[in-house]
Amino acid sequence: MTPTLDWDDKIAVLRLGEDENRFSMRFLDAFNHHLDEIEGAGAQGLITTGGPKFYSNGLDLDWLAAHGDQMQEYVARVQAMLARVLTFPMPTAAAITGHAFGAGAMLAIAHDFRTMRADRGYFCFPEVDIRIPFTDGMAALIQAKLTPQAAVASMTTGRRFGGGDAAGLGIVDAAAAEDLVVAAATDLLRPLAGKDPGTLGAIKRTMFGTPARALTSVAAD
């Protein structure tokens, strides 16, 4: 499946899909197309969400196994997407309705806010257990958004955090019942409606300039 776009008044709700929502080339194309559309429509907020089982499992490892010669290009595209969300010129929130693993969890971290289902689903950076080190850009992204304690707990252990544990460490802003995760994200964004996108985008590019540059520099290597 590919992402689809809904609206809640002037808040864009970008639904990643009902499957594992891995970042295929088709997914990346559709995701960026919708971000273009959202910016062009003058939205006042962006929420991304998944299905009841998965928010996103991140990298398309099957595609990578079959296209190893394109790994650098693929990673550059994924990291460019993360950098774009990190500096997106409007308030953003990830409504994590299911599992968020690896680069899928990084996509959630790239948002301004995160809400997560309390009763089911895990947030996890499994890289230490699957022997895939973080890139400089991915590490910079996570460390820019989490406290040192939360970064160590999530990056070096491979631990799977439920919604309550994730909220306790500040990985997410709130845990909610399954049918309230998107509503909780919307509640975080509504008071922020009307922020000037040029000003907010400039602030985010300054706040997160270091991780954004680290994420996009791979394209120039």
UniProtKB/TrEMBL annotation:
A biological-process GO annotation: fatty acid beta-oxidation
InterPro entries: ClpP/crotonase-like_dom_sf, Enoyl-CoA_hydra/iso
Protein keywords: Lipid metabolism
Pfam family, one: ECH_1
Single GO MF annotation: delta(3)-delta(2)-enoyl-CoA isomerase activity
Source species, domain of life: Bacteria
Protein name from the UniProt record: Enoyl-CoA hydratase
Organism: Mycobacterium saskatchewanense
Source organism phylogeny: Bacteria, Bacillati, Actinomycetota, Actinomycetes, Mycobacteriales
